[in-house]
């Protein structure tokens, strides 16, 4: 699926999908109607309507499977972003145990990291153009700074230990969201979905070829159902792309203010 389509508002995506579905449905109707003459018309009318429920059921199960996969990936991506934000918030709060220059420096580095993630990584994840080979330099600097601190009291020792653990959690959450940003439905699943939809439409057109008005109504209803189902899958097919994608709003909420 092209990035430009996925980045459109959901209503526009739905309009494009429905237009394509109706066009394909009209083509199937015209083709079957043209072929339904003579012996072929008799053969089409002899097709049992009992074929429709099994094919439609398989199509519905596939739609449910693909939609569940999309929703599961989105939930995991949202959980990863929330965990990353919570870990960074913990670092900012624990930095108060080292007042003065260390606290100010830690807050500034966390601010810069979140700013870079929002400005650079999120658009790259939406394009599926980011990988784990690039280590965030600002977060690495935060970890080095925390490890270089010399705690003087028990409270500072505990704070340093918790900050190291929180930074490890933030790095792991970042890895998870980057991995999930590269996940999407492969061409085999899309092909099977479209083939099943096409077979169902063809079967409907054949079974009702003797009644053109009823045929058009039923094809229109099922075609609309196919379009809506595809819209549901497409709009959630990438965790960080499009209007329904996971946003960095939670990270922005925990971003500390930059030093003037």
Largest sheet: none
The stretches of 5 or more residues where confidence is low (pLDDT under 50) are none
Distance between the termini: 44 Å
Q: Roughly what fraction of the amino acids lie in strands?
A: under 5%
Shape: rod-shaped
Helix-residue proportion: over 70%
- Number of H- or I-type helical stretches: 10
Mean of residue pLDDT?
Answer: 91
How many runs of DSSP E, i.e. beta strands?
0
- Over the alpha carbons, how many angstroms does the gyration radius reach? 27 Å
- What is the element string, with H for helices and E for strands? HHHHHHHHHH
What can be said about this structure in brief?
Helix content is 77%, strand content 0%.
């Amino acid at each position: 699926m092209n990035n430009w389509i996925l980045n459109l508002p959901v209503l526009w995506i739905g309009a494009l999908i429905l237009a394509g579905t109706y066009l394909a449905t009209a083509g199937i109707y015209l083709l079957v109607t043209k072929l339904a003459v003579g012996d072929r018309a008799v053969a089409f009318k002899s097709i049992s309507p009992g074929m429709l429920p099994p094919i439609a059921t398989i199509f519905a199960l596939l739609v449910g499977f693909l939609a569940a996969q999309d929703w599961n990936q989105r939930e995991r991506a949202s959980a990863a972003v929330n965990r990353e934000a919570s870990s960074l918030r913990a670092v900012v709060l624990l930095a108060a145990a080292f007042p003065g220059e260390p606290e100010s420096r830690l807050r500034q580095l966390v601010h810069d990291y979140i700013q870079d993630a929002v400005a650079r990584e999120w658009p790259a994840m939406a394009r599926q153009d980011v990988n784990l080979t690039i280590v965030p330099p600002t977060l690495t600097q935060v970890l080095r700074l925390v490890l270089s601190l010399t705690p003087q009291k028990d409270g500072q020792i505990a704070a340093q230990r918790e900050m190291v653990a929180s930074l490890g959690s933030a790095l792991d959450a970042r890895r998870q969201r980057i991995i999930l940003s590269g996940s999407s439905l492969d061409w085999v699943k899309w092909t099977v979905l479209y083939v099943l939809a096409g077979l169902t439409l063809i079967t409907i057109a054949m079974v009702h070829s003797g009644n053109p008005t009823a045929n058009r109504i039923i094809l229109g209803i099922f075609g609309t159902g196919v379009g809506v189902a595809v819209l549901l899958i497409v709009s959630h097919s990438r965790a960080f792309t499009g209007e329904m994608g996971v946003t960095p709003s939670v990270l922005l909420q925990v971003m500390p203010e930059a030093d003037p």
